[in-house]
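Quick one: structure for this chain?
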Amino acid sequence: MSRFSRRQFLHESFFRASMTAAAAALAAGGHDPADAAAPRERQEKSSPNERVRIACVGVRGRGMDHVRGYLGQPDAEIVAVCDVDLGVTGKAVREIQERPPGKEVRVYQDIRKLLEDKEVDAVSLALPIHWHALASVWAMQAGKDVYCEKPVSHNVSEGRRMVEAAQKYGRICQAGTQARSARATRDAIAHIHDGKIGKVTLARGLCYKRRDTIGVKPDGPVPEGVDYDLWLGPAPKRPFNPNRFHYNWHWMWDYGTGDLGNQGIHQMDIARWALKKEGLPKSALAVGGRFGYEDQGETPNTLLAHYDYGDADLIFEVRGLSTQGEKGVNIGDIVYGSEGYVVFTSNYGSAAAFDRDGNKVADFRGGGSHFRNFLDAVRSRKTSDLNAPVAEGHLSSAVCHLGNVSYRLGEQVPFSDKKKRFGDDEEAYATFARFSEHLGASGVPLADAKYRVGRKLTVDAKKEDFGRDRAANALLTREYRTPFSVPSRIA
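Got it. Here's what it folds into:
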């Protein structure tokens, strides 16, 4: 049998065939969520007298998953909930009190008051992204352990401050990248790290997730029961607007990170983990735009980000318009090696490995509870017991931030522009061709349209900055609104 060259192996036709095989193989597997209940025999080792007293902070949407995740654990007790919107706390309280022993649950609107509560051992944070780092640092300074949703930070500097705080105050801090607790994901990563697919040269992350327009809404009165000034926290003072509040804040730079840092952080984390990279890449370049509609959203709904690690590349794609995906796979990762590849989908309880000819050679199955892992580490007091310590969450979040910094410093160019942006990386150009094809098929008039070409950033991985690039370095942090400031250093 003839052997493929690396160029042939990574060619677009192979990629499409790979996705076809992967989608078919994984479709038959069903769902085994990463946050599924831990094995009963492990849970029963916990004594009811050794309960970790939890406060859930942010109890709308994902926050209710936190509530339910701890309610199923015999050694955890939710003693308090906190949300700036008192209109959403009632549901959480009712659900908690329906479970034995049905104790009273304290309700806070201001996290600062909650952190004074001596009966709280740990906080579980499901907040807007611009609050993640500040709430985590404050909690660790108050002697609380922390589970923080993804991405752990709003910018690169904040993530490093969280790592420093965990070290200085001796706290357990878990990042909410729950795929790291799924048995299937862990086994598939081990398969890669054991050399079963040969030398790994490329990790590709896909976030093809339909996002409708958020429209244009006028500023208006603050809803009853909402402490809007507290909601803004570290962000600039602005009038209340529904598009800068519940969920739609994701698409505003003051509070969110777009889908690269929202959904894409999960796939970015798996890609970086698979590449076995313990630092930042050598360079980052992102191109994209907000296509298909005009609204108040600021972040791109279509993005291609390229990261150069020297001996391997990471290519990430975001598509928010309707798409068929790559032969059925919309959200996931493909990790390529010299002897095969591994496919991950958004079902973290299932992954599969293939040889170079597209034949499936291994299946990986099994979920796991990220909340259970956090509780185990809280009780052992060993950061090494965490599946997703904040140091890992920081690095994966930071790679997302690099792409956003590049994009934000970019300039608009027409699609007819033929300037070579990605050096000699053939896969990046093939990906951009698919990027353009997707937009054309979505009705974007490419002959007249423009897209944003980000600044190619050279990264000092050790210092976690951009050398002498002042404009880029300015976006490593933000201007904080007093008194909601993340410290510039925790020593």
